[in-house]
Amino acid sequence: MCGIAVAIDWPGAPEVVKSLIEGLLPRGDVTDWLRHPSQNVAMCTRRLRIVDRDNAIQPQPSFDGKLAVSFNGEIYNYAELRAELAAKGVPFHTESDTEVLANALRVWGHHALKKISGMYAFVAYEPATGQFLAARDPFGIKPLYVMQNGNSFLFCSEIRPLLNTVKEGNVLALPPGFLLTHHTCAPFPSPVTAPSGEFKPSNKNELDALLQDAVESHIPPDLPFAIMFSGGIDSTLVAHYARQVRPEVPGYFVGGPQSADYPFAAAYAEATGFDLKQIPFDPNSDATFSMLSEAVVTTESFEPALVRGAVCSLLVSQAIQKDNIRVALCGEGADELFCGYAPLEKAFGIDETYGRAMREECLGLMHRISLQRVDRCSMHHNLETRVPFLDPTLANYAHQLAASDLVRGGTGKAALRDVFDLYPKELPRIIRDRSKMLFSEAAGLKASPEEYAWDDRFEDAITDIEFVDGLKQYAAFNLHSKEELYYLRLLHQGMDVFRMPQLKGRARISVTPPAAAKTA
After folding, report:
1. Which residues of the chain have pLDDT under 50?
2. In terms of Cα–Cα distance, which of 300, 296, 333 is closest to 176?
3. Strand partners, 118
4. Secondary structure class of 446 (helix, strand, coil)
5. Counts for the chain of helices (H) and strands (E), in that order
6. Among candidates 131, 138, 21, which has minimal Cα distance to 73?
7. Domain boundary at 431, 452, 473, which?
8. Crossing angle for the helix pair 233-245 and 204-217, nearest 10 degrees?
9. How far is CA 488 from CA 50, 171, 231, 492, in A?
10. pLDDT value of position 280
11. Is position 494 within any domain?
12. First to last CA, the chain
């Protein structure tokens, strides 16, 4: 939805926040007023106008004016929460979800977070007491970074503005599902529940209804939107349910007829009349390779799993934005929840406990890889991308599925594949039965099963001696390849990577298989 900048008890707060907002301009189309409610406190938002576009000005006050909220994200059940608050006598002056958040926090405190279905990062400030509450949604769909100096705090939606504005000190990420105050940083009560251990088989009719509700809740009621479409199981399901509500919604596909994904995307379009828009992608061109610099800078990361996909994400986001669309839906989260990745399929084949542990770690890494890519690349082009598979009710359903409905016969996403059988005319069997491919690979980046199209370029760019020197210079980052060093160098050109501790804890799976499996 936007980018926020908030200073709490920070010297020179207004000028600092003004500088931060200048670094967030691509995240919105209007800069709301900079509010200075107390000495050394300032709040400002670069807002992408979606819900109640003319009146959702931030920071948004609570009904009694005792709380001010700077908010990035979308609350999908805000109408229900508004009705509940109105029944308690709470007045409203806008139709925005931001005002609902402000009033919900005023009435229920941090317990309001257990009621919210959405993606969000916000800072709420109470001028009378000088206290604040910051929080980030349970999956970390939306980012929130913080710098702390004693009792002073500085918040921003991206890392670079903080590094550019404050010349000393580390930038930290608020973990998903955590709240932060002057006195504590802790997980909050969440509508997303952890697996209970009491697993049950899937019911495809029940899952069908949950998928429909999740997708429908993410559709903007009064704006055009798009589907980021690959022809995979996940994006096909999103398109299927979205078109029950808005048949005209287009899908944007990265790649051409030579792409591995193309036959599947074309099959769905032919079967249903889907408006499929193709975005050319040549992984071997110099122009595409040169986009790596933009991908690294935009995503604020050097993780290959993030950067590779970011090139495609930037292309699709740009194409959607050029068509004057500011909201898109995508299928992120399904592979983690329903076990679509090959490592998860293999892990469940070894041991169910091991498989479930790996799935939880994959879910915990999303905010560092797929969700960070989606947020940065789409917001870089003034686009808000929504992820209906991470709807709390749907996520909770997936959490409790029996192993055989996650991985069946060595193949993941069994429960989602079963749903295809309910719609044989609209959901082609070749998509139901296909294997998972990563976004960038299926668009054409993977030249063969053994290597990426860019491997030779990294070899040409970095000699063996330079690689050894790079391993020493960046020893704290645990580099394993010339590709990683290439990305880290690009990132370091514009950011002090040594002030970003989260980069040193690599986004890699660490859970190990049972001892018996390792020695077999």
Report:
1. 447-450, 519-520
2. 333
3. 75
4. strand
5. 21, 20
6. 138
7. 452
8. 70
9. 35, 17, 32, 6
10. 93
11. no
12. 50
